[in-house]
Design brief:
229 residues; mainly beta; 9-stranded mixed β-sheet; 4-stranded antiparallel β-sheet; 2 helices
Length: 229
């Protein structure tokens, strides 16, 4: 892991500062997809921006279950039993202006000082399942590089960040919006478990876009799983 200087932490990515996440968690009859800040009230989800919801079972290829999902104002109910669930959302274009952040393309904000396109990918995995270690195929993805089923409080485990299926060097990784560092050239970063329960790892990668609508593409991915208490 490469430590980040304080100034880099402050400027890491617009997404980390916004603290708005897409995440998947177990529900009463399957899973729930939510957007906002974990631990606070969920924000509305635009169904048109949720492009895919995929379910993975051991030994089977990912299957898209978006068609059976039930969209409510601030959550999406996914009535499926899966070892891994992954969701993809295209949040559109953002700009930073003297008046604040706006969810519009740069072409509609002549006073923009920064602009980016945002795509988010969220994944929940059963730490005990062998399917947890297999990539789903998202544009940006966090996959375990250690056996999560054996992880206990105090242990270290490794995650690998993939971009387009290949190791992503230099991805910024955070836990609970606390930036830990960047992935190495193999896309790997090691993390220590400080407490049991739900763990959520976030990774962000910034790429030049050079389009009229935005100058940068910001990809975000999360991996959520549970550690025994």
């Amino acid at each position: 892991m490469r430590a980040l200087p304080a100034v880099v932490l402050l400027l890491a990515l617009p997404a980390l500062a916004r603290a708005h996440d897409l995440w998947v968690e177990p529900g009463a009859d399957g899973f729930l997809l939510r957007y906002g800040h974990r631990g606070h009230e969920a924000l509305p989800i635009d169904p048109a921006r949720v492009k895919a919801i995929r379910c993975v079972e051991p030994g089977a290829a990912p299957r898209d279950v978006r068609a059976v999902a039930a969209f409510a104002r601030a959550e999406v109910r996914i009535p499926a039993r899966c070892a891994v669930v992954s969701a993809a959302a295209d949040l559109g274009f953002f700009v930073l202006t003297p008046d604040g952040e706006k969810n519009v393309p740069r072409t509609q904000a002549p006073d923009a000082v920064r602009s980016w396109a945002s795509r988010q990918y969220a994944k929940w995995a059963d730490a005990r399942s062998p399917a947890a270690a297999a990539p789903v195929g998202d544009e940006l993805e966090v996959v375990p590089a250690s056996d999560l089923g054996k992880v206990k409080v105090g242990d270290k485990y490794a995650v690998r960040v993939l971009a387009g299926g290949k190791p992503a060097a230099g991805a910024v990784v955070a836990v609970g919006h606390r930036v830990l560092g960047e992935t190495d050239r193999e896309g790997i970063l090691r993390i220590r478990v400080h407490e049991g329960g739900v763990q959520s790892i976030d990774a962000s990668l910034k790429r030049p876009l050079q389009a009229p609508e935005a100058e940068t593409l910001v990809l975000e991915a999360s991996l959520t799983f549970e550690v025994a208490r």
